[in-house]
Write a structure and sequence with these properties.
The protein is α/β, with parallel strands linked by helices. 47% of the residues lie in helices and 15% in strands. A hairpin with a 2-residue loop joins strand 2 and strand 3. Helix 2 runs antiparallel to helix 3, helix 7 packs antiparallel against helix 8 and helix 8 crosses helix 10. The protein is globular, with a radius of gyration of 22 Å. The N and C termini lie far apart (63 Å).
Length: 278
């Protein structure tokens, strides 16, 4: 008999095209007691996105940071929407509890009702394929207390919050140091991506799902002086391990390909009646 209850959507997130993102925000008024202000009080100032895709067996990366200048809020949300098309898997850390609600409410406040990509990911099912909140994944959907990104990264050998912390963003914004906020936001995105790769590989019981993209990510960082602030992610213990394992996997793949070619040539000779000499 068919169940009348709807099935839970699959949360088998695809790894070939992901957009990892993070939002930094400020509040206009301080909150009594020094507690973290409720999310509706937050106003985004910087959003950073890392697009990571696998195309023809090559990993490709693009990092984009968008600044929300006073008076440019409508353009900011349109630019954010362009980074989050419906066909990708978006990845964040506590993104269902903070980043996506903050972006959604801000866009609505600006009367931007035409942002299909942002809307798609903001309303994505908790267990669906469109969005992955790593804080939920690592805590087994509330099976245990949710960890912080720093706690996860410290345990996995991933650098995080090395120079700036979230509590510094307000002062940096008021002083006009937007570049420092953008660098910090991009560092959090890079840390989230590394943590995502670790969880994705664990879930699928396949170390290749972390070592190959992480090795490629490290090389991508090294190739551009503009990414110097991300260099710790290319030299971290996890990246060093991934690069050595990626090399080993590449050698193993090359040997398997050579064996297949030798066997194919032998089969061709046998088919044509040519004796094989060893």
């Amino acid at each position: 008999m068919r169940s009348i209850y709807p099935q839970r959507p699959s949360d088998e997130h695809g790894g070939d095209h992901v957009v990892v993102f993070d939002v930094e925000s400020i509040v206009d008024e301080a909150v009594d007691g020094g507690s973290f202000p409720k999310w509706p009080l937050h106003r985004p100032v910087v959003a950073s996105f890392l697009t990571a895709s696998l195309d023809d067996r090559r990993y490709r990366f693009q990092m984009t940071s968008i600044v929300c200048q006073p008076g440019g809020e409508r353009d900011f949300y349109q630019a954010v929407d362009a980074q989050m098309p419906a066909g990708v898997t978006t990845v964040g850390f506590n993104s269902r509890g903070y980043d996506l609600p903050v972006l959604q409410l801000g866009a609505i406040a600006e009367r931007r009702f035409d942002l299909a990509g942002l809307s798609h990911h903001a309303r994505a099912h908790r267990f669906g394929r469109s969005h992955c909140d790593l804080s939920e994944m690592y805590s087994l959907y509330g099976g245990t207390k949710r960890p912080s990104l720093s706690e996860i990264c410290d345990r996995l050998g991933i650098p995080v919050k090395t120079t700036v912390h979230g509590s510094d963003v307000g002062a940096l914004w008021r002083s006009g140091d937007v570049d420092a906020i953008a660098r910090y936001c991009e560092e959090d995105v890079a840390a989230t991506y590394c943590a995502w790769l670790a969880h994705h590989a664990w879930r699928h019981s396949d170390e290749a799902l972390i070592v190959r993209p992480l090795a490629a990510f490290a090389q991508w960082i090294e190739r551009s002086p503009k990414r110097a602030h991300l260099m710790p992610f290319a030299t971290s213990p996890t990246a060093v391990w991934a690069r050595s394992r990626a090399l080993a996997l590449g050698i193993a793949d090359a040997l398997k390909l050579a064996e297949r070619r030798v066997q194919h040539a032998a089969d061709e000779r046998a088919f044509n009646g040519v004796a094989t000499a060893f």
